[in-house]
Amino acid sequence: MNTSDLIEKYIQKKATAEELEIIKQLMDRDSEFKSEVSFHLEIRKAIEKEERERLKQRLQSLEQNKQNKRFLSLWWKIAAVFVVGAGLLWLFNQPVNYEKIYVENFEIYPNIVAPTVRDFNGSEESIAKAFNYYDSRNYREAAKAFGALQTEDAHFYYAMSLMGDHQIEKAIEIMKSFDLQSSEKYKNQINWYLALGYLKIRDKDKSIIYLKKVIKNDQTRASDAQKIMLKLK
């Protein structure tokens, strides 16, 4: 076996015990051979060092990528929380749009008392005339006609006519009168329209008072009242 093969096996740590003895003897008596072995050992060390550096850099790169992914994941989570939080903050800090809520919920109460007639005869002429105006949506004339009458029905539809004619504060005054406040027939309707009336004039606190009464006593409008309450808070 030539010296080059011996050196190669020595460098790769594959030499047998017998070959190691030969190499030792050669290094003791042949300085050139010894220098050759040292040279190859240095090269081997340099290669191993280079490989270790590349491996280290590779591991660092993988770790950095891992950290970047963690950071990005965390960043997106934080960003998502921020966006949701900002959205909720924006939502809850929006001013109450009283007019929009009012328009969405106000509907004039239907005529459930007297059918519309064209000829006025007998003692019910005045109430029939008032309801004719009401059913034709001439709320100003209806208000005048109902306002001249003294029945419970007339008082209620007088208030409704005023609301239809956008005379909200006057309608509230009529609905809060003793006759209508003590009315069992129109109690639930009065609470609902008072809540809407106060909403229209932007009196949130009083609107909420009557919305709570609606929720408690009027099953047909309780859900709508709850939705309005949420928008007001």
UniProtKB/TrEMBL annotation:
Residue stretches spanning the membrane: 74-92
Coiled-coil features, chain-numbered ranges: 45-72
Keyword terms, alphabetized: Coiled coil, Membrane, Transmembrane, Transmembrane helix
Source superkingdom: Bacteria
Protein name: Tetratricopeptide repeat protein
